[in-house]
Amino acid sequence: MKILTADQTHQADQATIREEKITSEVLMERAATAFTDWLTARQSPAEAGEIMVLCGPGNNGGDGLVAARRLHERGYRVQVGLLPASKHSDDFTINRQRLPAAVPVTDLAAGLPSIQPNALVLDALFGTGLSRPLDGAAAAIVQQLNAAQARVIAIDIPSGLLADAPQPADSAVVRARHTVSFELPKLAFLLPQNAEYVGHWHLLPIGLSREFIEETDAAMHFVDATMLAGWLPERPKFAHKGTYGHALLLAGSHGKIGAAVLATKACLHSGAGLLTVRVPGIGYDILQISAPEAMTLTDPATDFITELPDLKPYSAIGIGPGLGKEKSTKDVLVKLLREAQAPLVIDADALNLLGENRELLAQLPADSILTPHPKEFERLTQPARDDYHRLELLRTFCQQYRCYTVLKGAYTCLGAPEGTLYFNSTGNAGMATGGSGDVLTGVITALRAQHLSPLHAAVLGVYAHGRAGDLAAQETGEAGLLAGDIVRFLGPAFREVTTRTEF
Ligand SMILES: NC(=O)C1=CN([C@@H]2O[C@H](COP(=O)(O)OP(=O)(O)OC[C@H]3O[C@@H](n4cnc5c(N)ncnc54)[C@H](OP(=O)(O)O)[C@@H]3O)[C@@H](O)[C@H]2O)[C@H](O)CC1
Ligand SMILES: [K+]
Question: Where in the numbering of this chain does the YjeF N-terminal domain appear (predicted)?
Fold first, then answer.
């Protein structure tokens, strides 16, 4: 799914109106009715109690007025609070007139009426037309609402939050439990710094112009299963292990052979035809016993890797999990960057070594895939002022070094060399556990070994890793989830995204 800017979303509205030959008021009716259906499916009139609908002067307020009318028609008790304003949008005015007289209307000029804790409040004050931080009466209302401990549901976006840019730190923004938006996700929903405002977010289709969305260039995408169609075809009957490449992993050091084992198992469960693992001597027995399907190529040194093996046989190389940062291990990385012909996946201590020796970044082979968490990324670049700045750093970094960078987090974000960002939709908080990143390295290395493009390997790898985590959490719960559980569910996750051709 594309992530459009507020401006592009407005253009999508206009395109839909033109194409369908409808009025903007009809589109508003559609959006607000979809919202009402969403709400009434989750709350009966008794569960909802008296619903307060707070409406601003623009079309977001118009959505609120339509929702208030629709809820009233369905037997919900509703009252409306109107923000004082010098001008109103046309569709606001039309729907203000359509509001049944039986719905009580309060002027919010005198502040927010008293709201019982746990009361249901619909926030329709401001949407994507917000042009500056809230101040004056609007900011005061938002602060009173946030203090009221109500069950707030934001329509389209929490009021005061910009759809695709940061606002000053002390701005008034509604803290919603749920945000119900339309058609496509907004960037603001995907960033940790906005989680306290957005709550759980949901998307409702309202039939925005497919043609406009397809033709519009988006700098950002939200990756869902539909985007992956055809990326992983089913295996032909006469496939043999050579068809699926030969991966090499360089991983492990004394005390961290577990990282090598996790990456190894993940690589095997992600379809690599053959896998060789370079570990220090201490890892030999451990690896052979825990992953007999992999070939083990031990380093002459006992505790860490000191020599690069012959690279000729391999179709992809992953380096980093549990590697350590010994001087001779760094030399191996330097040599690898110089000599690798096969695609690289670089993680963990290999990234930290790059961070400590940034001159090496210029040696990264084009199309390498890096998989840092935010701290590792900071070591490669600089501390970010906020989540938006971090995305800017990500974009610049990928462009400068012509690499793909997987910035791990709740909505893991992949940066591509031409500057596009891809946010992942799968995964859960249980995956914030030791070894989860090692598993991802194994997955992406396996996909690169199978000759997937760097974009497909990174996007699909991150998606399948998250999906495996979600399937695992259904069994273990989030707290009980271990990285090894993610490995167990990689097969089912890949099965879901494999494209079958029936005819
Ligand atoms: N795209 C869709 O899927 C649909 C969206 N709909 C809804 O429409 C809103 C966007 O409506 P819009 O009228 O463009 O914008 P807002 O309702 O957010 O508000 C605009 C008015 O608010 C004023 N404004 C802006 N910032 C402030 C501020 N900080 N303080 C006070 N007032 C502010 C603005 O005034 P300007 O001076 O900036 O011009 C406007 O008066 C979208 O979010 C959806 O909810 C449709 O229903 C159709 C489908
Ligand atoms: K809103």
Answer: 9-214
Give the nearest ligand 1 atom to 63 CA.
47
**CA-CA distance, 316 to 190, in Å (whole number)?**
31
Please give the model's pTM, rounded to 2 decimal places: 0.96
Query: Using CA positions, which residue lies closest to atom 41 of ligand 1?
Result: 58
Q: How far apart are CA 296 and CA 292, in angstroms?
A: 9
Coil, helix or strand for 421?
strand
Chain-centre distance of CA 172, in angstroms?
Answer: 25
Instruction: Find tokens 């960057």 and name the residue.
Output: 337
Domains contained in the chain, CATH given: 2-215 (3.40.50.10260), 228-235+314-497 (3.40.1190.20)
Instruction: Quickly list DSSP for 122-182.
Output: EEES--TT--S---HHHHHHHHHHHHTT-EEEEESS-TT--SSS---TT------SEEEEE
384 token code pair = 């970010």
Instruction: With cut-offs at 50, 70 and 90, classify the pLDDT of residue 241.
Output: confident
- CA pair distance 19, 350, nearest whole angstrom: 52
Atom of ligand 1 nearest to the CA of 132: 29
For the four alpha carbons of 304, 308, 310 and 313, in that order, the dihedral sign comes to positive
Query: With contact defined as beta carbons under 8 Å apart, do 228 and 460 qualify?
Result: yes
Instruction: Please identify which residue in the block is written with the tokens 């790898």.
Output: 461
Q: Which residues of 333-370 are buried (b: 16+ CB within 10 A; e: fewer)?
A: beebbeebebbbbbbbbbbbbbbeeeebbeebbebbbb
Spatial distance between the Cα atoms of 226 and 135, rounded to a whole number of angstroms: 41
Tokens of 196: 């306290």
Q: Determine the distance separating the centroid of ligand 2 and the alpha carbon of 237, expressed in angstroms.
A: 54
Q: Do residues 211 and 15 touch, judged by C-beta distance below 8 A?
A: yes
Nearest CA to ligand 1 atom 14: 129
Check whether 148 has a pLDDT greater than 80.
yes
In this structure, what token pair is assigned to residue 271? 């379809």
ipTM value of the model?
Answer: 0.97
Return the amino acid letter for 408.
K
Give residue 155's pLDDT. 98
What residue owns the CA closest to ligand 1's atom 3? 182
